[in-house]
Amino acid sequence: MTPAARVQAAIDLLDAVIAAARGQGASADRIAAEWFRARRYVGSKDRRAIRELVWSAIRACGPVPVSGRAAMLRLAADDPAMRALFDGSTYGPAPIVADEAVAEGGIAPQWLVERLSASGLDADDQASLLDRAPLDIRANTLKISREELRVRLPVEAEPVMGPHALRLPSGTAAEAWPEFAEGLFEVQDAGSQMACMALHVQPGEAVVDLCAGAGGKTLVLGAAMANRGTLLACDIDRARLSRLPERAARAGVLVETRLLNPGQELAMLDDWQGRADAVMIDAPCSGTGTWRRNPEARWRIDAKAIDRYCAMQANVLTIGAALVRPGGRLTYVVCSLLDAEGADRIAAFLAANPDWEPVLPPLPAGRPHRQGWRLVPFRDRTDGFFFATLVRRVN
């Protein structure tokens, strides 16, 4: 493909991504995969170049662009060489005309920028949310140590914060390695690993991962428990939870799974009420801390969605708290940096539940944020997280 044809292909793909964002459709990754699958004639170099253009344009636009062409014109605004590719050549984009729509730049839609600022994120913090994310893995200590794994890997791996995290070059196809098939590691952001450290589970404990999803954090907890004790992973999403048994078998983690019916969670967990030593609540959220991986996600959020997430977060906190024994603890986690979903939720819970108190476990990165802990890409080189560990007082 010519450079101009690559630009036009990126515009076409961006149109599909923008339409999906407006309609709450498939992710950009999925759309791109399907788009290229339908165009097998596009070579690997062209695919990489087109994907680079698409994701660069997504990062360059703040609000949702009116079109893929407007998004690409935003990317080309300060790039004369790219503007020259709008030349009307065969398979290339039409020439630029006067007063043509150019997408607005910025970090996110203005209302969302204002909420990030109100949550204590300065300009550098906000800009870092759109950086390119590295690839982190977690050594599975049920099978291997971090240093032993590092020696075995076919690429250079950098130890990063926490005792089990390694950082690989971006784009590494780590899940194709035999070490992954052997269950020696999982792909997981170092910040996510650190959130699990905050719960400080121990061998022999009774532990619940309440919003387990596909089980990324469940596997961390199981390794920390050394398969001694009882580990229960729950979720209301059958498709996601169904992926956990295979992952757990590969990792050698002993875990029970339980599919919950929405609205009936407490009844279906009656045998666990007041029994758990530790509960992990990886709450549903807007994902503002993961824009490095899914930059188009900021086009899918609106204020009503934030309110819905807050209601869900309050609900899972209530459910999780009911499972904890006196003297036990829970860790509440969101991969969002909006206070409405993080610090405000914890403050509201503590105000309504005086028999709980926050603790700040020592961690190798991040900093305290109100009654919890915050990780920000700019300072901590992880995805963005807020988490808080709470202990139920013994009366």
Which secondary structure elements does this structure contain, and how are they paired or packed?
Elements: H1 3-22, H2 28-37, H3 44-60, H4 68-76, H5 80-83, H6 110-118, H7 123-128, E1 135-139, H8 146-152, E2 158-159, E3 165-168, H9 178-181, E4 185-187, H10 190-197, E5 205-209, H11 216-225, E6 229-235, H12 238-241, H13 244-251, E7 256-259, H14 265-268, E8 276-282, H15 303-323, E9 324-334, H16 343-352, E10 356-359, E11 367-369, E12 372-375, H17 377-380, E13 385-392
Parallel strand pairs: 5-6, 5-8, 6-7, 8-9
Antiparallel strand pairs: 1-3, 1-4, 2-3, 9-13, 10-13, 11-12, 12-13
Description:
The chain is an alpha/beta fold and 395 residues long. The chain folds into 3 domains: 3-106; 135-187, Sun protein, domain 3 (Alpha-Beta Plaits, 2-Layer Sandwich), CATH 3.30.70.1170; 190-392, 3-Layer(aba) Sandwich (Rossmann fold). It contains 17 helices and 13 strands. The chain has helices at 3-22, 28-37, 44-60, 68-76, 80-83, 110-118, 123-128, 146-152, 178-181, 190-197, 216-225, 238-241, 244-251, 265-268, 303-323, 343-352, 377-380, and strands spanning 135-139, 158-159, 165-168, 185-187, 205-209, 229-235, 256-259, 276-282, 324-334, 356-359, 367-369, 372-375, 385-392. The strands form 2 sheets. Strands 5, 6, 7, 8, 9, 10, 11, 12 and 13 form a 9-stranded mixed beta sheet that branches.
